[in-house]
Amino acid sequence: MPTVKLTYFNLRARAEPCRLLLAYSGTQYEDERLTAPWDDMAPWTALKPKTPWGQIPMLTWDGEVIAQSMACARFLAREFGLAGRNSMEMAQVDEIIDVIQDLLNTWYSLYHAKD
Q1: What is the pLDDT of residue 104?
Q2: Residue numbers of the chain with a pLDDT score lower than 70
Q3: By three-state DSSP, how is residue 107 classified?
Q4: Nearest 5°: phi and psi at 26?
Q5: Are residues 48 and 57 in contact, defined by beta-carbon separation less than 8 angstroms?
Q6: What is the pLDDT of residue 54?
Q7: pTM to 2 decimals?
Q8: Residue 87 zone, left/alpha/beta (φ > 0; ψ -120 to 50; rest)
Q9: How far apart are CA 103 and CA 105, in angstroms?
Q10: Helix H or strand E segment including 74
Q11: pLDDT of residue 80
């Protein structure tokens, strides 16, 4: 069984698809949740320089680090046999992942829109 850690803020946002995949698979993992930056910037400020792209979520799988939320989700889907059995199914999985990304991006733009 791999050693798995998912690092993100204590929010349901970009890491949630990975949390759902991990829960679905029954994989035990460390769910490292940082305090939201608007509540306390210190934990994120300390971690940010140690991340591959200065961003989280970040998935650590047996010591290897993967960044970018959808790359992490695609990796987990492949590991758990959920990424499709042929090219058409794989494209359909990619389609779902891209829709999730579009929804998240829309939500973020609405959340940060000025009144």
Answers
A1: 80
A2: none
A3: helix
A4: 80, 15
A5: no
A6: 96
A7: 0.86
A8: alpha
A9: 5
A10: helix 69-79
A11: 97
Q: Supply 40's token pair.
A: 């306390």
Q: Is the dihedral of CA 18, 19, 20, 26 positive or negative?
A: positive
Residue 108, pLDDT score: 76
Q: Which amino acid is at 62?
A: D
* Residue 110 CA, distance from chain mean position: 21
Which pLDDT score, from 0 to 100, does residue 9 have?
A: 97
* Chain length of the chain: 115
Number of continuous H segments (helices) and E segments (strands) in the chain: 4, 4
Q: How far apart are CA 110 and CA 108, in angstroms?
A: 5
Secondary element (H or E) of residue 47: helix 42-47
Beta bridge partners of 64: 61
Which segments within the chain are labelled E, that is strand?
4-9, 30-34, 58-61, 64-67
Structural contact between residues 36 and 8, judged by C-beta atoms closer than 8 angstroms:
no
Cis status of the peptide bond prior to 57, with omega within 30 of 0: yes
Identity (one letter) of the amino acid at 20?
A: L
